[in-house]
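For the sake of clarity, the format in which proteins appear in this thesis is described at this point. Each number in the token line that follows is a code from a learned vocabulary of backbone shapes. One such record is shown here in full, so that the layout can be seen directly:
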Amino acid sequence: MKLCYFDEHRFGVVDGDMVRDVTPVLAQLPVYRPPFPRFDPVIAHLGDLVPAIREMMADAPAKPVAQAVFHAPIGNPGKVVAAPVNYRAHLDEAIAEPETFSAAHVRQIHETGLFLKATSSIVGTSHGVRLRFPDRRNDHEIELVAIIGKPGTNIREEDALQHIAGYTLGLDMTLRGPEERSLRKSIDSYTVLGPWLVTADEFGDPADIGISLTVNGEPRQKARTKDLILSVRALIAFASQYYTLQPGDVLMTGTVQVKVS
């Protein structure tokens, strides 16, 4: 199932080349009062909502996907956890360009650990990126993104995929410079997600997925997740050693080399 938020924050299911409005299903969600949860209620209750969504789809109003305005497919993520330099090709690029990548960039992910991005940096694919420092180098970094569906801490690698609600694409925009990584990557609109979330049952195994990025039709990035230094499973296990992962948390898995040839 492909889930999305579109137009005036309607909740939808992408069905072929149409998006079906199933917003009324959200009335089944619990009503929260302070203290508000630090997770995404839709993702937390997705298992309960899916049967009602399927029942509603046949008669749901629909419009062409090409005419929809897509917001990020996660409405209330508690945190964005990201993996730095998690493809060997990107690590080799960082080593070869000391004028662009600091010494910290060329350390293995096992040494540097993960980092957090501000949730305020998230936008949908229809909204695009607004460069905050156009006089400096800004890189586009396409990534497979896993969305946590079940809470957990100290998750075993062999159990990790059971904690995923679904997957989407992410664009981890990066301002190059000497500042700390999370600062440069948390600029407004520098985390693009979507256009929709594909539920884990439909997506399948993330171990060998191809991702690519073009700019104005020109190929810029291309990778397969089999080349990740830490796999999706390993990243979830790693992250959960430090954080309790909650439904709706966003896990960005890393990008391949970003140099434009």
